[in-house]
Amino acid sequence: MRKFILFSFILIAGIVFQGCNNEGKKAGDTAGFETDEKFQKEFQEKLILVEDGGTVEFHEGKFLFKKALSVEGKKNITIKGAGAGKTILSFLGQTEGAEGILATNCQNIIIENFTIQDAKGDNLKLKGCDGVTIRYMNSTWTTGADTSNGNYGYYPVECRNVLMEYSEVSYCADAGVYIGQSTNVTIHHCYAHHNVAGIEIENCINSDIYKNKAENNSGGILVFDLPKLFQGNGRNAKVWDNDCINNNFQNFGKPGSIVASIPPGSGMIIMATDSVDVFNNRITNNKTVGIACVSYFMTGKQLNDSTYGPYCNTISIHDNKFDRSGLSLKEKVPDLSTDLGKLLTATFKGALDIFVDGSADPKFRDKNGQLPEGKKICIQNNGEVKFGNLNAWKSKGREDIMDYKDNDMTKFNCTYTGINGNNLNPKDAK
Amino acid sequence: MKKTTILSLSLIAFFCLLVFNQCKVADGKVTVDINAKPFEKLSEYHFFKGKLKDLLPNDKVLPYDLITALFTDYAHKSRFVWMPEGTAAAYTKDEVVDFPVGAVLIKNFYYPNDFRDESKGRKIYETRLLVKRKDNWDALTYVWNDEQSDAELSIVGDNKNVSCIDIHGEKMNLNYSVPNKNQCKNCHNLNNVQMPIGPKVRYLNKEFNFADGKKNQLEKWTEVGYLTGYKKEENIDNKIADAFDPTSGTLEVRAKSYLEVNCAHCHRKEGSANTTGLYLMLSDKNPESWGVMKSPVAAGRASGDNLYDIVPGKPDESILVYRMTENDPEIRMPELGRSVQHKEAVELIRQWITEMK
Questions:
Q1: ipTM associated with this complex
Q2: Dihedral sign, CA of B163, B166, B169, B170?
């Protein structure tokens, strides 16, 4: 009974406070934009006529476009503006194409120094490119935190050799920096804020994510692997020296989307991915969970893909700094707006620094639910942490998922050497 | 002395002009040079004789039609094919026939002023050429001027306001989009190589009313020397259905024929949408690859909160129908060439799904 009262209190408090950071839909930024169709044609023409090895320059100014811009099949080209905030391309209310800029089948393409905003779908999408550099960019929606905003701020998909650096992204209804189904990925010195997910790699192979700042998103940094995609079974990621701060923003993701299930207040989530090293990150003031390491089943979605591994294997979480002392009492109420948030709050009665669902891949686990050497989840040297484990491997389903929890971190006391990202970047922070 | 110089210079200039003009006008043969830069004006190819806007085909320019055509905002299309002297396309059973270097496919997009009575005139908006070069196809778009006297090469595309009377006698206004060069490849893409879509044997296998009488198109192509290796008896059933002619096939075959023609250039294993796992070729026999109880991969908001591409018996819960119905650029399918709903097609697909078990 006491438990129930406490839980109800948290629930009510949560409902009261949850409304506080709601930012409504805004009209979107149109003031001072050039709307003459000739600019659309001029910019598109440059992107078609640029010869291999050439540079396309977008001059300073604010331009509102009705249609997506596209670039296809070019080699060794640079697309540059006069600076983020100086050259602004807006696609607010576009009538053709779902992207802002779409680059397909390019080799060695650099995109730098402009702002792109308010596309219907993704602001910048690259598909099937080898050699992608995106830098000194800003990608945003000026319509506020609205569910009908576009999905991704930067979206390289099915690419190889992707470098994403020194760029800002905000107000994506899905993920700010989103790199999907790509191989050899580096993301560093990016600033993602007020997105549902700040920085996300999904089904990527060989990734380094370091020195980024993810702030005021619902979830800061995500390392995900999802079923039924062209490139399956993402693996090999190193995530270090990032700041995940105050990722307590309302989740305004599209109902049914994967990120809509992320509890606001999540610093970092590793889901269903193999071989991930997470170290020296600063996880600060995230109200629900600092770092979560979970299986795909935590999304609550059905699964029918026999080639897909829904569990996390070979994960090392070490030398990270956790701090929640900057949150006021009312800010400390963990998320109750999502199923996972409710489950965590109800099970552990408060926020966690490190959470594992303890689902343990049945291919490898022993009769005590332990993974063998080389497949284990290792957690070491993270200071004083509040830890929770659902031991979901024992659970039959939703009805008893809360019954096997414990706070015993000793089973995870191990270390790894030799988890590699892409080995392209100096590990100056270790 | 000075005067005479000027006079003789002008005379020479005049004479030159005369010769030049003569060359240009008097020689009305079709002119295609795959090694030269494309002409700036459509008229320079001489695909048509007389007034350009009448689209009267020049010698060896052969009109053709498809059994079921790709929908493009209700625009009418008149198609022609031309091949260099002494060359022919080689028969291919399933894919686009193997065209010779230098072949040109010419497609004109126009709207009748009144869809109920085409004798009331029409306005042509664009002419697209697909030109077969040595190892690739080049896509060229010519945008017609308002006077309808000629069309000019455009690589960046255009938008045109169209206003006409539709088949039901209602006013139809729409913003017609001329694609840019990159957009062409979005659909005309097979394993990342730019290709034509229409001229497959199974789309061409029908009668056409030629100037000298009715004839099966493939027989006509063979007769004029444009097609080799075609055997009529082996291809009697090698054809899709006319989606909107109930005598042409079962409801299922007509619905699938429509989807193949309108979607499968991307939604096939070799197409731009191969990442989605939705394959809409008539030859695909697996119901899930057709979308039956298949979850979307990356539809996002465009699923309209529906869970499956096709739910048998329930068109209102099928993403396929939703995306054919909506006009929002993030949701609509196809992505290009459709800004208004193809009402008759939505009706056809709805009926098919309603009756599906």
A1: 0.78
A2: negative
Say what the pTM is.
0.87
Nearest 10 degrees: Cα torsion B79, B224, B86, B38 = -10
What are the tens digits of pLDDT across the range A104-151?
999 999 999 999 999 999 999 999 999 999 999 999 999 999 999 999
pLDDT in tens, A18-57: 444 445 688 899 999 999 999 999 999 999 999 999 999 9
Domain end residue (candidates: B191, B213, B234): B234
Q: Give the contacts of B213 (CB within 8 A, at least 6 positions apart).
A: none
The phi and psi torsions of B189 (rounded to 5 degrees) equal -140, 115
Can you give the three-state secondary structure of B3-38, one letter per residue? Answer: HHHHHHHHHHHHHHHHHHHHHHHHCCCCCCCCCCCC
Interchain CB contact of B304 with A (< 8 Å): no
| B303 near A CB under 8 A | yes
Of B192, B301, B335, the CB nearest to A254: B301
Q: Is residue B35 in a domain?
A: no
Residue B319's domain comprises: 246-355
Q: Does B327 touch chain A (CB under 8 A)?
A: no
Pairing of the two strands A87-90 and A115-117: parallel
Query: What whole-number distance in Å separates Cα of residue A407 and Cα of residue A354?
Result: 10
A227 touches chain B (CB under 8 A): no
For residue A292, give the nearest of A382, A388, A198, A381 by alpha carbon: A388
* Widest CA span in chain B: 95
Residue bearing tokens 């197409």: B271
Domain match, B49 and B110 both: yes
B258 and B166 in one domain? no
- Report how far residue B327's alpha carbon sits from residue B349's, in angstroms, rounded to the nearest whole number: 17
Q: Which residue has the tokens 């000027």?
A: B6
Residues of chain A contacting B174 with CB distance shorter than 8 Å? none
Shortest CA distance from A303: residue in chain B: B295
